[in-house]
């Protein structure tokens, strides 16, 4: 029988993560807590990971390479200054760095001190040169032609200097940048770049087109067969603890169902994916498997357009937000297979999220009186604004029936379709008819960018704090859909420059109340993830960041004592 567990991934109130290894209902329970503590493993062994898509761009920080699958597959190849823990806290990577601190505030100055002996797989020391190159290719003032995925923060760095033979790196910023720890998440090797050409050529072509023969992480690529598989073995010059497994193979299998079938047959030993009711049921039928589920820093939410012929009316948006039962949406969707992933009542932090070691999440939704399915309260708001519900139809103040509202969703995403259908049902109670626009993959993103909707369902990653929100809700932001609020802009700008965690948390929660009060975002729940693997393996954790479960891959291994079945 499969191991049946409910494992708490973090021991905090309102925990972000929980895990559950499941089987049939007659399986014995094996409860444990704080399962993210590293378990004892033995050297040797191997694992094969199922992945949906092969790598098409070998530069993990390029505009095309910075995708979920490519980031996670290449994580074991690069040095990373900071690591996200399962409880969402961000800690220094002690294998790479002795320290990393803001040492001056005016101007903001950050100092990194490398550990002795950190090096690339060819023996070249990791040094200030690598930081200089990695910053330059993400700073448009130094390389306008470089097709980088992310430039915020990098363009604020005015100087980078090395001392102590390149071991100490000192950076000066033109203005405070609170998310400085999110920078340099993949450090590229400057000496390899030199062989590829100038900045633009090396970044856009050299690192993009060539399968890496180098590594600054625990593993190095031994073999890559395009579209079939990738095999990694331990980096002989790895400077940290481990790695434990002798071989890490990634096999490319498109569908989740097919991946789980391959897991059951022994062709692969790890499936890491967003679960559905069907895939969870399939996993639960397997024997001798550990199943973990948990949410991430990416969360699902509804959004309303705040411009246009009808949605520009704040009273209408408030009434919609009041009538919708967001808890019911969670219960009828992910609650069917990830019952421990809680409802979110904040649009700026996920439950359990920590900033600077401090609890950041708070329920700002309840006090606003929204998201609880209060149809009577919603009708009262509408009537005060001059609307009337007549024969089940909402009549506008000018006496004309409200037109049908368009709910844009991705038609191939089962979860988003379910959310649209539930919203459609709930809004009938206040006389609003919703038409579901189930767009295909080719049309969905352009329609979303153009604001071709009244209501929509999508996901947002919160790993960049206020920067994540500025991309959505800042005036003139590419995904703001015309939303503009001077107070929201002020709070986002202040939070992005605030280095004190407690002060930033206060600003962000104030921003949360503004955004939800405007109805531009209605949070639902963290995006659930599922990891399924044999109970002979250990130290495989769901990681809340967009870099996924491979963040601690050097700790993976065969358990000294396999989990009881």
From TrEMBL:
Entry-linked SUPFAM superfamilies: Periplasmic binding protein-like II
GO biological process: peptide transport
UniProt entry tagged with the keyword Translocase: no
Keyword NADP among UniProt keywords: no
InterPro entries: Peptide/Ni-bd, SBP_5, SBP_5_dom
GO molecular function, one term: peptide transmembrane transporter activity
Signal peptide: 1-23
Solute-binding protein family domain sequence ranges: 94-465
One GO cellular component, as annotated: periplasmic space
Keywords: Signal
Pfam family name, one: SBP_bac_5
Regions that span the bilayer: none
PANTHER family, sorted: MONOACYL PHOSPHATIDYLINOSITOL TETRAMANNOSIDE-BINDING PROTEIN LPQW-RELATED (PTHR30290:SF65), PERIPLASMIC BINDING COMPONENT OF ABC TRANSPORTER (PTHR30290)
Official protein name in the record: Peptide/nickel transport system substrate-binding protein
């Amino acid at each position: 029988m499969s191991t049946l567990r409910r494992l708490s991934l973090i021991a905090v109130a309102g925990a972000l993560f929980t895990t559950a290894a499941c089987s049939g209902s007659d399986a014995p329970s094996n409860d444990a807590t704080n399962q993210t503590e590293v378990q004892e493993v033995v050297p040797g062994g191997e694992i094969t990971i199922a992945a949906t898509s092969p790598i098409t761009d070998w530069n993990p920080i390029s505009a095309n390479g910075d995708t979920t699958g490519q980031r996670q597959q290449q994580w074991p190849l690069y040095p990373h200054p900071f690591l996200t823990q399962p409880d969402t806290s961000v800690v220094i990577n002690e294998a790479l760095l002795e320290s990393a601190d803001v040492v001056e505030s005016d101007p903001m100055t950050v100092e990194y001190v490398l550990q002795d002996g950190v090096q690339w797989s060819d023996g070249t020391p990791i040094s200030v040169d690598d930081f200089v190159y990695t910053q330059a290719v993400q700073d448009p003032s130094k390389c306008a032609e470089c097709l980088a995925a992310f430039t915020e923060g990098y363009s604020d760095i005015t100087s980078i200097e090395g001392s102590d033979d390149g071991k100490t790196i000192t950076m000066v910023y033109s203005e405070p940048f609170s998310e400085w720890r999110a920078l340099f998440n993949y450090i590229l090797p400057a000496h390899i770049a030199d062989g590829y050409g100038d900045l633009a050529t090396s970044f856009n072509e050299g690192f993009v087109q060539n399968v890496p023969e180098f590594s600054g992480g625990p593993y190095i690529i031994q073999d890559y067969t395009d579209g079939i598989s990738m095999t990694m073995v331990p980096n002989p010059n790895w400077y940290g603890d481990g790695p434990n497994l002798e071989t890490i193979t990634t096999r490319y299998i498109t569908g989740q169902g097919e991946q789980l079938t391959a897991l059951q047959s022994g062709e692969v030993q790890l499936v890491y994916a967003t679960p559905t009711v069907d895939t969870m049921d399939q996993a639960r039928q397997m024997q001798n498997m550990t199943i973990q589920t948990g949410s991430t820093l990416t969360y699902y939410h509804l959004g309303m357009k705040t411009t246009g012929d009808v949605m520009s009316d704040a009273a209408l948006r408030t009434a919609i937000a009041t009538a919708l039962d967001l808890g019911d949406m969670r219960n009828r969707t992910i609650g069917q297979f990830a019952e421990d992933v809680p409802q979110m009542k904040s649009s700026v932090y996920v439950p359990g999220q920590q900033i600077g070691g401090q609890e950041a999440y708070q329920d700002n939704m309840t006090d606003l009186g929204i998201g609880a399915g209060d149809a009577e309260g919603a009708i009262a708001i509408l009537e005060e604004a001059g609307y009337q519900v007549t024969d089940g139809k909402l009549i506008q103040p000018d006496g004309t029936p409200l037109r049908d509202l368009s709910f844009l969703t991705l038609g191939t995403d089962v979860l988003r379709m379910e959310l649209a259908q539930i919203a459609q049902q709930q809004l009938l109670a206040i006389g609003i008819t919703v038409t579901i626009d189930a767009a295909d993959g080719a049309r969905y993103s352009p329609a979303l960018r153009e604001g071709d909707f009244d209501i929509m369902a999508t996901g947002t990653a919160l790993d960049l704090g206020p920067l994540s929100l500025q991309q959505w809700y800042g005036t003139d932001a590419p995904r703001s859909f015309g939303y503009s609020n001077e107070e929201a802009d002020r709070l986002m700008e202040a939070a992005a420059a605030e280095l004190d965690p407690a002060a930033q948390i206060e600003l962000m929660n104030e921003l949360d109340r503004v955004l939800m009060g405007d109805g531009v975002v209605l949070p639902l729940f963290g995006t659930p993830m599922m990891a399924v693997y044999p109970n002979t393996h250990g130290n495989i954790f769901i990681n809340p960041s967009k870099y996924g479960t491979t963040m601690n891959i050097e700790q993976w291994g065969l358990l000294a004592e396999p989990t009881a079945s």
